Amino acid sequence: KEKLYIQEFICNLVLLNTLSYKISMHNLYTNFVKILDICKLFSKDLVNEQGNIPRPGVVPRFSDLEIVSLSIVSEAMGIDSECLLFAKLKEYGKEMPNLISRRQYNDRRKLTSNLCDTIRKRMALEIDGTEDYFCIDSKPIEVCRLSRSKRCKMGKDEYRTAPAYGYCASQGAYYYG
Q1: Across the strands, what pairs with 176?
Q2: Rounded mean pLDDT for each run of 10 residues along the chain, 177 residues in total
Q3: Any residues with CB less than 8 A from the CB of 145 and at least 6 apart, and which?
Q4: Cα separations (Å) of 51 from 10, 37, 108?
Q5: Whole-angstrom distance between the N-terminal and C-terminal Cα of the chain?
Q6: How confident is the model at residue 166, as a pLDDT?
Q7: Which one, 4, 55, 110, 122, has the greatest CB density within 10 A?
Q8: Residue 154 has what pLDDT?
C-alpha cells in the first residue's frame, strides 16, 4: 500500500512538473522576464541603470529594454498584431503595472529599433560567432533526384555542409540533400 502511494505521488509530481513547464513556456509574462534578463546582459554599454537609452527629458516608467524585450517576445511567440498583444497583456496587469498604451508602445518601439537590432546581433554572435551560415535541421530537403546526385555540384564546395544520402522514414524514401 505504501509503495502504491509513493508511485502515485511521483506520477502526480511528474504530471504537475510537465504541466507547469508547458504553461510557463506559453506564458507571455514568464517569457518576457526571461528575455528581459537576456537583453540586460547584451546591452550593458547601450543603456543606463534604468534600462533606457540616455536622452534628455522625463524618465519613462516602462524602460526601453522592456520595450525591446516585449517586442522580441511577441515576435518569438508568433503574435503579429499589436492589438492581440495588448489583449493578452491585460491578463498581466498586476505583474506589469507600468505597462504603457499601445500607441506609446508603437512610438517607442520605432525609437528603440536600433537598440533592438544591436541586441539581436550581439545575441547571434554569442550563440556562434565563427559560422557564416546556419543550417536548421527540421526535415529532409531533397537537393536533387538520386539519379542526378553524382553530377550535382550544389553545396559540395565545403565538406561539412555538403549534401549527403539519407532515408526519410515518414516518406519511406531515400533522398539526396
Answers
A1: 144, 165
A2: 48 48 68 90 89 89 93 87 90 89 93 92 76 65 82 76 79 82
A3: 176
A4: 43, 11, 13
A5: 56
A6: 83
A7: 122
A8: 78
Residue with the three cell numbers 505521488: 9
Nearest 10 degrees: Cα torsion 63, 67, 68, 70: 130
Contact 154, 144 (CB under 8 A): yes
Answering whether pTM is above 0.70, one says: no
C-alpha cell recorded at residue 148: 542526378
Q: Hey, how many other C-beta atoms are within 10 angstroms of the C-beta on 85?
A: 19
Three-state SS at 128? helix
C-alpha cell at 158: 565545403
Q: Are strands 165-168 and 173-176 parallel, antiparallel or unpaired?
A: antiparallel
Q: Domain limits of the chain?
A: 2-128, 146-176
Q: HEC string of 158-176?
A: CHHHCCCEEEECCCCEEEE
Q: How far apart are CA 76 and CA 43, in angstroms?
A: 19
